[in-house]
Amino acid sequence: MNWDDTSDATAPERLADPAGERLVGSVADRDDQAVEAALRPRDLDEFIGQEKVREQLDLVLKAARARGATADHVLLSGAPGLGKTTLSMIIAAEMGAPIRITSGPAIQHAGDLASILSSLQEGEVLFLDEIHRMSRPAEEMLYMAMEDFRVDVIVGKGPGATAIPLELPPFTLVGATTRAGLLPPPLRDRFGFTAHMEFYAPAELERVVHRSARLLDVEIDTAGAAEIAGRSRGTPRIANRLLRRVRDYAQVRADGTITREIAATALGVYEVDARGLDRLDRAVLEALLKLFGGGPVGLSTLAVAVGEERETVEEVAEPFLVREGLLARTPRGRVATPAAWAHLGMVPPRGAGPAAGQPGLFGT
Ligand SMILES: Nc1ncnc2c1ncn2[C@@H]1O[C@H](COP(=O)(O)OP(=O)(O)OP(=O)(O)O)[C@@H](O)[C@H]1O
Ligand SMILES: [Mg+2]
Hints:
Blueprint: H1 12-16, H2 30-39, H3 51-67, E1 74-77, H4 84-95, E2 99-103, H5 110-118, E3 125-129, H6 136-148, E4 150-155, E5 162-167, E6 172-177, H7 185-188, E7 193-196, H8 202-216, H9 222-230, H10 236-253, H11 260-269, H12 279-291, H13 299-306, H14 310-323, E8 327-330, E9 333-336, H15 338-343, H16 354-357
Parallel strand pairs: 1-6, 1-7, 2-3, 3-6
Antiparallel strand pairs: 4-5, 8-9
Helix pairs in contact: 5-6, 8-9, 8-10, 9-11, 10-11, 12-13, 12-14, 13-14
């Protein structure tokens, strides 16, 4: 029952990575929200990458359509900016159904959920974003609604309270979460289909960049798109954001066309390096290498060295560094990998770094 006591661990990446602060942050900022609607693929064919999820979802939706039935409930899990909201809209579009959008934090009381559920039309898609942040009573009401298309509305208070059953029209719940692990198993089990969204490969992001450039009416060549894709941290939202910043640069400092050189120079101005690391990521790596010889060093010490909060280093910088294989979290502290030394163009000192600290861990 470890999901029980973590219900308040409200997606730290959303707290530690406040919208708009980082060019390579994966959570949507105001700017993103303004353009995202225009850049969203409208159907499964337009949706780039996530081949497995697309194929599986295509089958689920086609089968439901052929039966003339409402599609099974779908759970979308994955990091911010990978396309969960986009896919939920595609599901509704593919089913020719209307969509109602709400989120876990917006549902404070079970009554809020009851009123949404009871106003759904038959076949409607209910998109519940951040479903892991719903209140407990609402969650329990949702179990019954998902399974039996029924809710019990409680009328009155105390011993006189009565539950009045209310039939619901069949609907499709699409839940989205950045933290599938926080979902209580009874909720997870009620989804007929779960899609795990993966980070995108560079070639896929390149296609995302080309597509968005076309929609934004921006000239870009193949190498320019590849350059942006390579710095986008596997995330379409970041690719689209970097594209907009590079477009600004191309229009102000050049003739508007994005080439590799323009993209590289523009993103250099914004301190996003060739691998998508920003100032903070690099500061953490540099401190680890230059001050601590590659570690192991404790998180608190590392945080002080870069002048940041412990949480910022742990939740904002480290996940990407770990994912990129640049940094490892070990029981003895943070350790730089050989790739980290290479990325910063440095040579590990003999007898220091991971080889000495963790014999054989990285095969060095
Ligand atoms: N497969 C894709 N093909 C093309 N563009 C995509 C794809 N996935 C996402 N995008 C683009 O990335 C942007 C962000 O996607 P979306 O809002 O769906 O992410 P999300 O997973 O819902 O993020 P969050 O967890 O922050 O809600 C969208 O504007 C969309 O244009
Ligand atoms: Mg979303």
